[in-house]
Amino acid sequence: MFESKSGVLLVGGLGFFLFAFLSNAVVPVLLYRDLPEATTTELVAKNAQVMYQFEELSNRYPEQFEKYFGEPTQENCAKALELGRQIYVNEGCWHCHSQFVRPVSREVDRWGPVSRTEEYQNVLQRPVMFGTRRVGPDLSREGGRHASDWHAVHFYQPKLVSHGSTMPDYPWLFDGAPDRPNQRGLAIITYVQWLGSWLESYPYYEDYQPLEIERPEAPAEESAANPAEVSAATPAEEAT
Hints:
By secondary structure, the chain is an all-alpha fold. The protein has a domain at about 50-145 and about 180-195. It has 10 helices and no strands. The radius of gyration is 26 Å and the shape is elongated. It starts with a helix and ends with a helix.
């Protein structure tokens, strides 16, 4: 059997399979087995960007935020991230959105830097949601690409901000309106804004250049005048 062409191909195929298994599974495990797995609390403590987004949510939706999370502390942010990931998994977001930027097909231009091993060495990446298809865009670098209010409307009714989107509505993440996200809504927005926030290029992954806006300078007399004094003086002048 092994002297025939089919036998040689069989042995060669098995050999290549074993080589691929060793190089792509066993070797990486051995290389990174001593790399500690970061907890959610550690992730928040080392990431000012995700705390910024969490605090921004408290300013944007103060009533809802205070009702469901209270103060924008690191502890509450960690709880929101854990709940947000759970909702992301439960709602099946990973069916249509991958979380792995590959070094092919100009993916770097579309979604940012190629994914690295250390990005997945934390509890929020268990299990890792690499994904098998992209009905929607990859979300590995989604954090900072859109404001939180955009995400709120997008979760409430995607077609309002993304024409032709096949994403379903998620009204149960809100208390009746897109500007009233409930605990689940605030949590999943926090989680989405966390994705990619650990990168130095956050929040702009494209070649972003701020526009130079020329604003007219106010006349010296108008800028020096106090509006309150002008309004207070006007009735007196009219009376005289």
